TrEMBL record:
Keyword Transferase (UniProt): yes
Entry-linked PROSITE patterns: THYMID_PHOSPHORYLASE
Family recorded in the similarity comment: Belongs to the thymidine/pyrimidine-nucleoside phosphorylase family.
Domain Pyrimidine nucleoside phosphorylase C-terminal: 342-415
Biological processes, Gene Ontology terms: pyrimidine nucleobase metabolic process; pyrimidine nucleoside metabolic process
Name recorded for this polypeptide: Pyrimidine-nucleoside phosphorylase
Protein species of origin: Candidatus Xianfuyuplasma coldseepsis
The organism's taxonomic lineage, starting at the top: Bacteria, Bacillati, Mycoplasmatota, Mollicutes, Candidatus Izemoplasmatales
Enzyme Commission number: 2.4.2.2
Cofactor: K(+)
NCBIfam families to which the protein is assigned, alphabetical: PRK05820.1, PRK06078.1, Y_phosphoryl
Length: 434
């Protein structure tokens, strides 16, 4: 087999076989195939797409390029969820304890964030003492004992994806549905859970900008999972404004804890209850989605989900101080509405970038995060404001932030006309839809 023939085949719109895809991935990881040939192939895939069979073969080839996580020591059905990422996305911090309190087993491997704000690991590590470096035996034991553990991904999971993602990043081939789908699914399948619930975000602050693209990505990912015998469902959800009110690591930890006590924002609460219900139902804890929803909601009202969160944080060494004492910043600066009216939109990406400039996220892998800084929104889409009302508070450790104040203010569009609140969930894609 010659790589140049395979590039030509894909360039001319033909489907590659599983054997050919395995040859490409094995050759690339072994450094037998150079970056310039894989770059040409990626561009051919970008333009010509892939069939579900090709995307599945690519996923499996990347999955088998490294270690897979063995969760067989954990009793029961293991459930996982993955978000395609967004601004203020702290769903794992809420969903994990919520579904564990309802009886599901959550064995989660998470990543750090690059861009906007931190990832789940950065948020967890903002809690003093908390460790995400857990030995595999202790990881399984913790899930068996308390229903939940969250650890950092090891370096050896899906090395082919790491190499390909870095190359896609510099060859303008990231936004390709089959490449995104196989990148995400290879890592999810390597993580070993039986049930995978995907949260596919659409909007200004997300990879997918339209419902149509999000549906296609969801169908490809559900198709790949189904093909390899996993239970996969995709929720298509809104990222046209930040999720919840907070963007920034400690601010998001506090909001997650409030949500688990029933005092969280409406969008975050609805999203977590709905995704959580699917996770609980798919784990066969209830025999209908409605019963699962009731059970999940009960975990919030009876405070079991909040207690589970504290148990989980403590099990991983976290010492959560009194929440009033948790966040330390030099200054909290208010951003005011320059006119009255209804909030028509809040550009999620701009809020994310403003938070990153404060130090809440990383511009490069080497940057360190300031866990205390961030942005708390006071108004969301559909809310009414008078001129001068506080739109947002900026938690900062930097003294001159005039540019950031202006960016947060400009992220808001205020309309004189009435604006409806936007839905948080647009569609749910199951294997029946593919
Ligand atoms: N997230 C991933 O893990 N991979 C992609 O290609 C895009 C988003």
């Amino acid at each position: 087999m010659r790589i140049v023939d395979l590039i030509e085949k894909k360039r001319d719109g033909h489907a590659l076989t599983t054997e050919e895809i395995n040859f490409i991935i094995e050759g690339y990881v072994a450094k037998d195939i150079p970056d310039y040939q894989i770059s040409a192939l990626l561009m051919a895939i970008y333009f010509n797409g892939m069939t579900t069979a090709e995307s599945t073969a690519l996923t499996m080839a990347m999955l088998h390029s490294g270690e897979t996580i063995d969760l067989s020591a954990i009793k029961g059905i293991k459930v996982d969820k993955h978000s395609t990422g967004g601004v203020g996305d702290k769903t794992t911090l809420v969903l994990g304890p919520l579904v564990a309190a309802a009886g599901a087993k959550v064995a989660k491997l998470s990543g750090r964030g690059l861009g906007h704000t931190g990832g789940t690991l950065d948020k967890l590590e903002s809690i003093p003492g908390l460790s995400i470096a857990i030995d595999p035996k202790d990881f399984s034991k913790q899930v068996n004992d308390i229903g939940i553990a969250v650890a950092g991904q090891t370096a050896n999971v899906c090395p082919a994806d790491k190499l390909l993602y870095a190359l896609r990043d510099v060859t303008a081939t990231v936004p390709s549905i089959p490449l995104i789908a196989s990148s995400i699914m290879s890592k999810k399948l390597a993580s070993g859970s039986d049930v995978i619930v995907l949260d596919v975000k659409i909007g200004d602050g997300a990879f997918m900008k339209t419902l149509e693209d999000a549906k296609e990505l969801s169908k490809v990912m559900v198709g790949i999972g189904t093909e390899v015998g996993k239970e996969v469902v995709a929720f298509i959800t809104d990222m046209n404004q930040p999720l919840g009110f907070t963007v920034g690591n400690k601010l998001e930890v506090v909001e997650a804890l409030e949500t688990l006590q029933g005092k969280g924002p409406e969008d975050l609460t609805t999203l977590c209850v709905e995704i959580g219900s699917y996770m609980v139902y798919s784990a066969k804890i209830t025999d209908s989605i409605d019963a699962a929803r009731e059970l999940v909601q009960q975990q919030i009202t009876n405070k079991h989900a909040h207690d589970k969160q504290l148990e989980f944080l403590q099990a991983q060494g976290g010492k959560l101080p009194d929440l009033e004492q948790f966040i330390h910043v030099k200054d909290i600066v208010s951003v005011h509405a320059d006119t009255g009216g209804y909030i028509a939109s809040i550009k999620a990406l701009d809020i994310g970038l403003a938070a990153m400039k404060l130090g809440a996220g990383r511009a490069t892998k080497e940057d360190t995060i300031d866990p205390d800084v961030g942005i708390k929104l006071h108004k969301k889409v559909g809310d009414y404001v008078d001129q001068g009302d506080v739109l947002a508070s900026i938690y900062t450790n930097t003294s001159s932030i005039d540019d950031i104040i202006a960016e947060v203010q400009q992220a808001y569009t205020i309309s004189k006309d009435h604006v409806d609140k936007t839905p948080i969930i647009y569609e749910i894609i199951t294997k029946e839809d593919i």
